[in-house]
Amino acid sequence: MPLQAQLDVNNFDTNSSQILEDFIISELLGCDVQITNVEYTGNIDAIGSFTYTENSSLLCEGDFGLDRGLLMTTGGIDHAVGPNNNGDDGEEWSLQYNDSFIQNYLFNYADIDTSVDLYDASVLEFDITSSDDTSLAFDLIFGSEEYVEWMSPFYADAFCFFVSEIDNDIDPNFNTVPQNIMETGDVLNVSPNDCNSPIENKPISVWTIRPYSQVFNLPGLNECLYLDNENGQFCDAIGYDGYTIPMLFGLELLANAKYHIKMIIVDGAGPALDSGVFIKKSSSDDILDIDFSWDNPEYNEEGATVSFNNILATNLNVTYFWDFNNDGIIDSNDANPTYTFNESGNYMVTLEILNDCLGIYDSVSYPILIEQVSLNENFNRVTIYPNPTIDYLNIELVDWTLSCSLDIIDMSGRNMLSKKININNSQIKLELEKGVYYVKIYDESDLIHVEKIIIF
C-alpha cells in the first residue's frame, strides 16, 4: 500500500529552556541572532514540533506547504493530526488569560467582541539581538476546528507575533509598544491579483480569514488565504476543518538593537474547539546563494596565481571548502582565497559551503584554464619515497631554502598527521591504518607539493 501524507507532532519538555532555545534557533530564526530569556506560558500539551511527509498520490489535493517547524495551539497539538473525521475536536482547560494589551488589540481590530474573555493561551516569549543587520522570514499556516460553523467574534481564536524594542531606541520601526508583524496585510507572498477582493489588514484569526459565514450570513474575508478542509476533503492528514495557505512574513532586525518577541495563540470565550499555528523559518532562507568569480592569472616564477572571490554575503556561520585542482583535498577554507597553479592545464575548481548551524550544504564548480607555466627547473623539486610504503616516508626537497611543513590527509579530508620537515631531508614515521592518503607540503607562504601515497 502506498505511503499516505502524514503529520507527526511531538511535545516539548517546556521545563528545559535550552530545548526551546535550540529549537527556536534551528527552526525559526537561524544562527545569525542570539536569544535570551526564553519563557513558555501555557499547557505543556499545547506546544511542540511537527513534521509533515507529503505523498502526491493519496489524500491531499495539494501539498500542505510546510515540512516541519513549531506548532502552538489553544488545545492539544494532537488534534492537529488527521484524519479529520470529527468536526469538533479540542481541549478545554478553561484557563483564563488576562492581558489587557492583547485583549484591547483584538477588540480594536474587531477580532473579538468586547464581552469576550480570553482562555487557554499558548505563549512563547524571548529576547533577540543580532550583531549585524539581519533579515528574517517566516512561513505560517493557521488552522482551526472553528471553521466553518463557529466563525464569530464571540468565539474566534487568534494568533499574534508581537515585536517590541527594549533597552535602547536604535530601530526607528519599533518601540516599547508591541507590534504584531503577522497581520493579513503583511503577507508577502500573495499579490492583489491572487484575490478576487483586496486583502484587509487584520490579525490572523478564524474571524479575519474565513469563507462565507453561514451563521451570520456574511461574505468571506481574506478568503484567498483560506483552504476548506471540512471532513478532510482537502487533506485528511490535517485534523482541522480549515486552514490557511502558507503565508510569508518578514522581520528586519538592526545591529545591536534588542527586541522582545511574544508569540501567542489564544482562545476567545474558551469553547472546546482548537486552533493551531504552524510556523517555521522560511525555506527561502535555507537557499545558499553560492557562486564565485576569479581574476585573471598573474604569471610569475612560482606559477600562475589566481585570486578567487565567493559571491555570498559574509556569514559567520558558513564554512568554505575550496578544491582548486579536483583532487578531493580541501586547499583553503578562506572566504576569498588566492591559489598558485604550478602547472599549465585545465583545472576544475570547486567551492563547497556548509551552514554550520543549520547543516545546509551546497557546492558549485567551474573549469579554469591555466596557460603555459614556465618554472625554474631547480625550483620546487620534491621527492617522496618509498611509495607504496608501510611505516615511514622519506622526503627530499632539492634547492629549497625555506622551512616547510607536512600534512597527511585521508580520503575524507581529515588531517591525520602534521610535521615540520627539514629543508633537504626528512624521514617521517607513519602510524596510520592501511589505505590511500595525500601528502601536502607547504612553506610559510604557499602549498608547494601534493602527492598520493598508499600505506600497506
Walk me through what this model shows:
The protein has 456 residues and is mainly β. The protein folds into three domains: 6-286, no CATH class; 292-370, Immunoglobulins (Immunoglobulin-like, Sandwich); 381-455, Immunoglobulin-like, CATH 2.60.40.3080. The chain has helices at residues 17-29, 100-108; strands at 6-11, 34-41, 47-53, 68-73, 96-97, 118-129, 134-144, 158-166, 179-180, 204-205, 226-228, 242-244, 247-253, 258-268, 275-281, 292-294, 298-300, 303-310, 318-323, 338-341, 345-355, 361-370, 381-385, 392-398, 404-410, 415-421, 425-429, 435-442, 447-455. The strands form six sheets. Strands 1, 3, 4, 7, 11, 12, 13 and 15 form an eight-stranded antiparallel β-sheet that branches. Strands 2, 5, 6, 8, 9, 10 and 14 form a seven-stranded antiparallel β-sheet that branches. Strands 16, 17, 18 and 20 form a four-stranded antiparallel β-sheet that branches. Strand 17 (298-300) and strand 18 (303-310) form a beta hairpin. The longest helix has 13 residues, at 17-29. Residues 375-379 have low confidence and may be disordered.
Q: Quick one: how many beta strands?
A: 29
Largest sheet: 8 strands, antiparallel
Backbone CA Rg: 30 Å
Residues in helices, as a percent range: under 10%
Uncertain segments: 375-379
Task: Name the structural class.
Answer: mainly beta
Distance between the termini: 50 Å
Q: Which oligomeric state applies?
A: single chain
Q: How many helices does DSSP assign?
A: 2
Apparent shape: elongated
- How much β-strand is present in the residues? 35-45%
| Count of domain modules | 3
What's the rounded overall pLDDT mean?
A: 86
